[in-house]
């Protein structure tokens, strides 16, 4: 009976028993077109000389970590978490985040910090802050999953890119510039809006 079921299975899916089905891909198999190139071009940008009266332009370094096995949607939360932090603070905070993506982001920031000191003439490695931090969608590999009654389902293996730009100097007080008003001014504004309300069809 078992042999009969095996023959039916092979006849249905036309699978040769000598073939080996793999649903993963080795790291060395990525093609050059799968790796983003435009972000690193900012490292090669040449600026004109500055006037002595102008404010000195801070040094920066762009770095990326590409095609690692992680969901870009999950990585976005970790990338947003470290924006506007100093490098030391970001590394310290990521050490306590119990996520696989936190370790990958931490590794990328440390690599960018080392590049800034060795290749971009940054004097102090602690005098850097995270000016940009975002994730991108990498390669998606489609595999198959066997379901009941001889059916097949699709499974997607998602890969991600991580991009970070470190800038020399101190981070801004409010990175997102959410609201320039003080708490008391916000309260006064809200009260004024409430008092201006009008009940429809009233005097």
TrEMBL record:
Its main location: mitochondrion. Belongs to the universal ribosomal protein uL22 family. GO terms for molecular function: structural constituent of ribosome. Keywords: Mitochondrion, Ribonucleoprotein, Ribosomal protein, Transit peptide. The keyword Transmembrane does not apply. SUPFAM superfamilies: Ribosomal protein L22 (SSF54843). Pfam families: Ribosomal_L22. GO terms for cellular component: mitochondrial large ribosomal subunit. Gene3D superfamilies: Ribosomal protein L22/L17. The keyword Metal-binding does not apply. It is found in: Mitochondrion. Component of the mitochondrial ribosome large subunit (39S) which comprises a 16S rRNA and about 50 distinct proteins. One of its GO terms (biological process) is translation. This is Large ribosomal subunit protein uL22m.
């Amino acid at each position: 009976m078992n042999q009969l079921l095996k023959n039916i299975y092979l006849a249905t899916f036309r699978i040769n028993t000598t073939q080996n089905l793999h649903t993963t891909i080795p790291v060395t198999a990525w093609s050059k077109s799968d790796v983003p190139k435009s972000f690193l071009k900012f490292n090669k940008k040449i600026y004109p000389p500055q006037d002595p009266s102008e404010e000195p332009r801070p040094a920066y370094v762009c770095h990326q970590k590409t095609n690692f096995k992680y969901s870009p949607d999950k990585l976005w939360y970790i990338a947003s978490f470290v924006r506007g932090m100093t490098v030391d603070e970001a590394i310290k905070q990521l050490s306590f985040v119990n996520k696989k993506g936190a370790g990958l982001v931490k590794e990328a920031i440390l690599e960018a910090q080392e590049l800034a000191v060795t290749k971009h003439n940054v004097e102090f490695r602690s005098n850097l802050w995270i000016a940009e931090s975002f994730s991108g969608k990498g390669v998606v590999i489609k595999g198959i999953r066997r379901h009941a009654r001889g059916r097949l389902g699709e499974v997607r293996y998602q890969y991600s890119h991580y991009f970070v730009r470190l800038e020399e100097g101190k981070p801004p007080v409010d990175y997102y510039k959410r609201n320039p008003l003080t708490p008391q001014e916000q309260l006064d504004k809200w009260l004024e809006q409430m008092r201006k309300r009008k009940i429809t069809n009233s005097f």
